[in-house]
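Running this now, will post back.
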Amino acid sequence: MASTSHPSLIDLQDLQLDDARALLEHAGQDSGQASDEPPLAYLQRVINGLCELSLKDPLTGLGNRRHFIATLERAIEVVARSGESILLLLLDIDHFKHINDTHGHLAGDQVLQAVAACLGHCVRPMDTVVRYGGEEFAMILPNCRPNCGRAVAERVRRTIESLSIPVTPLVNLHVTISIGGAYAPEWVRSTTDLWIERADQQLYRAKADGRNQVFLDLPHEISVSAEEKGLLFGHFVMDQAATTPDGAPDGAGHGGHSTHRVSA
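Update: finished.
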């Protein structure tokens, strides 16, 4: 009986790679196949390049929101397993709309690129900096103890404040940023949404307080949401319910999005 044979090599001519090559070339990556490069190795290199591009913001070169969420989810797992202190910072350029309205969107893009480059130089190799969206950026800072968090955020704020950004040969712009930050609750698997919401609340405080400010939700005064309270103490509530006649222990109700102060 004749055996069914399968081709051992990929015929690249059968693949529609023109758009993929164009994307890689636009990003400054080599998209051509070397004369001695096996087809499978070349195809893998193209796929790897496209994966890398899918995690980058095209304007600033920083990671994008997809990269941010993936990194934040991994950070939550680290906190749950080890209790490591990981700080999330949300940073927003103050009065950015005024820059666009006054100097044009090209100047706005130049400001975004300059701030992004500056933020990239403010952090350690282990840290993550992304463009979260619009004029907002985010930082994930592992192994950042609470007694250092404010100093780190203030250093970033001051560095941006001192930045001079040339947008035309005769015009240099100076911008400021507002920063809100939060630590993930230790030893518990929170969620990315809850962690981002906590940091966003602090960013709102910084904006409302006059901008160019830093507000952090520190562990010793952390505001735990009802959802996270359930993650932290749910098993205690269940144990108590099993031994309570009516099955409803005092103070075990969970409601809405109210917050509570707990000690670290």
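The chain has two domains: 65-221, 226-261. More later if anyone needs it.
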